[in-house]
Design goal:
Layout (H helix, E strand, L loop, with lengths): L9 E5 L4 H12 L3 E6 L2 H11 L4 E4 L5 H15 L4 E4 L14 H29 L2 E6 L12 H21 L4 E8 L5 H9 L3 H8 L12 H8 L10 E4 L8
Parallel strand pairs: 1-2, 1-4, 2-3, 4-5, 5-6, 6-7
Helix pairs in contact: 1-8, 3-4, 4-5
Bound molecules: NADPH dihydro-nicotinamide-adenine-dinucleotide phosphate.
The site of NADPH dihydro-nicotinamide-adenine-dinucleotide phosphate has 29 residues, from helix 1 and helix 6.
Length: 251
């Protein structure tokens, strides 16, 4: 269906070499986009590229480094000719109580999750503006909405992402650029494996509290990526959409 057809579009998915990013990248590739995945781990990317088909490619980039974000976007534009879609997904988690967070923990997490996403958005803007439009998707979290005892740094970054999304959406709407945020629930990725190892009883909590009664999978994010990257969402901007098996819908 043309509404969701991404043929001829070029997408960047930061952190697309695994987890949620790979699930979204697979959706975009299936809808016809040429996908550039980024990350730090080239070996992991090799496996991801096998799932994405012959037109996808990998660009190594550390998102907390602003220059690296701009260089990555330029490399994608040089290789693929244009940049139409950005999924600013790369991120890390930290599960320390606020009193235990070091300055390095705090700055390191915000540098990656919040500043990294912003730098990538800044870097794609001139390409999208020149082309007369584009689609940006940021990745928040349930902790964009709720508090948690272990969520001071992570929640601050993800609350910030949601507000950043709204500001960019209002600033760039007249350029034909839509900016929306996806709020994943509990998705079974490497990040979640780390969380389960650190938080006692997390698996039971997720299964009990998620109305869908299961963890999400990276592939559960494919559909929302295609919607927010395609013409189907041309009048949708500045929103934050949970993809969480109903987690955020309950009190
Ligand atoms: P993963 O750990 O599986 O993936 C994270 C990705 O981000 C990796 O591909 C990693 O690449 C990349 N990345 C991390 N740090 C950097 C960095 N400094 N520079 C460049 N790339 C980096 O986790 P998820 O797929 O779960 O997480 C993806 C996003 O979804 C994150 O923003 C996370 O906060 C968010 N999220 C996840 C939830 C979950 O339950 N899993 C819930 C809500 C939100 P590499 O391995 O090469 O370093």
């Amino acid at each position: 269906m043309k509404l969701f057809d991404l043929t001829g579009r070029v997408a960047i998915v930061t952190g697309g070499n695994g987890g949620i990013g790979l699930g979204m990248a697979k959706g975009l590739a299936e809808a016809g986009a040429r996908v550039a995945i980024t990350g730090r781990n080239a070996a992991k990317a090799e496996a991801a590229l096998k799932e994405l088909g012959p037109h996808a490619f990998f660009v190594e980039a550390e998102v907390s480094d602003r220059d690296a974000c701009f260089a990555m976007v330029e490399e994608v534009a040089r290789k693929a000719g244009r940049v139409d879609i950005l999924i600013a997904n790369a991120g890390i988690a930290n599960r320390k109580r606020p009193e235990a967070l070091t300055e390095e923990d705090w700055r390191g997490l915000l540098d990656i999750n919040l500043s990294g996403a912003f730098f990538c958005c800044q870097a794609v803007y001139p390409h999208m503006q020149k082309a007369g439009g584009g689609k940006i998707v940021t990745i928040g979290s349930m902790l964009s909405l709720f508090g948690a005892p272990f969520g001071a740094a992570y929640g601050a970054s993800k609350g910030g992402i949601m507000q950043l999304t709204k500001s960019l959406a209002t600033a760039w709407a007249a350029d034909g650029i839509q900016v929306n945020c996806v709020l994943p629930g509990w998705i079974d990725t490497d990040l979640a494996v780390g969380a389960r190892a650190q938080v006692d009883g997390l698996n039971e909590h997720v299964l009990k509290r998620t109305p869908a009664k299961r963890w999400g999978r990276g592939d559960d994010l494919a559909g929302i990526a295609v919607f927010l990257a395609s013409e189907a969402s041309d009048y949708v901007t500045g929103t934050a959409i949970p993809v969480d098996g109903g987690y955020a819908a309950q009190s």
